[in-house]
Design goal:
It is a single chain. The protein is an alpha+beta fold and 55 residues long. The chain has one domain: Alpha-Beta Plaits (2-Layer Sandwich), CATH 3.30.70.20. Helices cover 18% and strands 18% of the residues. It has 2 helices and 4 strands; from the N terminus they run βαββαβ. A hairpin with a 5-residue loop joins strand 2 and strand 3. It is globular.
Length: 55
């Protein structure tokens, strides 16, 4: 099960460096590619606004 980024995302960039499989893409609100995400949770652990949750 992949993680998802909610509308609370502030596009700070903290999560993108944490993803070991580069599943996160930049934008006004970052997106996680569910086909690449390995459900490791590294991104959710570092998100300062808690905008990343399991789907």
């Amino acid at each position: 099960m992949a993680y998802v980024i909610t509308d609370d995302c502030t596009a700070c960039g903290t999560c993108i460096d944490e993803c070991p499989v580069e599943a996160i893409s930049e934008g006004d609100i970052y997106k996680i590619d569910p086909d690449i995400c390995t459900d490791c949770g590294s991104c959710a652990e570092v998100c300062p606004v808690e905008a990343i949750h399991p789907e």
